[in-house]
């Protein structure tokens, strides 16, 4: 009755061994991609652009190594820790490009899954919020308003992708988070502009009284 059981299960075991090796290799690379992406973003916010550019190249190489490890294992390629790492790479690449004035890279140019790229784009909103807050502290209202507009553009773009999570890899939840950040940042900008106008009026009054 079970004459072929050992033959069948041995073949499955061999397949699982291949998957296990691929997974271990890709997982290690994915953690390195995430760490390298974080370093790139920190470098951009600190103005260390040369170091950030080098870090971005390292992140690209690590991403390629990760994807090479799973190229023959579709069970591992899409979703999970692989797509999480791709998302972080996309976020770092988009933040670097936009803050340095370069065109943002496409999923094809980065060599990553489009759904992961969209999720990375969604998380860029949080980094733009941080940049806007830096510009507010530096009284650079024009730059702050420009990035606030970009935050809104990203939110409107990603919310238009109304697909199940199995396709979009959880994009809807990140769209909701992006909306909250846009609203809070708009409130921060409004408060900062009012304070700036009040300060200008007070200086004008002091000059008249002086």
Share of residues in strands: under 5%
Number of helices: 9
Low-pLDDT segments, ≥5 res:
none
Portion of residues within helices: over 70%
What Rg, in angstroms, do the CA atoms define? 23 Å
Count the strands?
0
The dominant shape is elongated
Oligomer: single chain
Category by helix and strand content: mainly alpha
Main sheet attributes: strand count, strand direction, barrel closure: none
Q: What is the H-and-E element order?
A: HHHHHHHHH
Through-space gap between termini = 104 Å
| Averaged pLDDT | 92
Descriptive report:
- With about 210 residues, this protein is mainly α.
- It is about 85% helix and about 0% strand.
- The relative contact order is 0.09.
- The model has no long low-confidence stretch (mean pLDDT about 90).
Which features does this protein show?
9 helices; about 210 residues; mainly alpha; single chain
């Amino acid at each position: 009755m079970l004459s072929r059981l050992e033959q069948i299960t041995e073949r499955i075991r061999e397949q699982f061994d291949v998957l296990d090796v691929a997974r271990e290799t890709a997982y290690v690379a994915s953690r390195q991609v995430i760490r390298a992406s974080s370093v790139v973003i920190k470098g951009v916010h600190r103005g260390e652009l040369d170091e950030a550019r080098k870090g971005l190249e390292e992140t690209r190489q690590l991403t390629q190594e990760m994807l090479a490890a799973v190229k023959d294992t579709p069970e591992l390629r899409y979703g999970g820790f692989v797509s999480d790492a791709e998302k972080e790479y996309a976020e770092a690449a988009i933040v670097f490009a936009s803050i340095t004035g370069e065109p943002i890279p496409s999923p094809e140019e980065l060599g990553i899954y489009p759904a992961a790229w969209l999720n990375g784009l969604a998380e860029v909103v949080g980094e733009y919020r941080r940049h806007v807050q830096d510009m507010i502290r530096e009284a650079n209202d024009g730059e702050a308003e420009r990035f606030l507009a970009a935050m809104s553009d990203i939110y409107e773009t990603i919310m238009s992708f109304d697909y199940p999570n199995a396709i979009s890899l959880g994009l809807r939840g990140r769209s909701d988070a992006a909306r909250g950040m846009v609203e809070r940042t708009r409130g921060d900008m409004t408060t900062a502009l009012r304070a700036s106008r009040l300060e200008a009026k007070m200086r004008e009054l002091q000059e008249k009284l002086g």
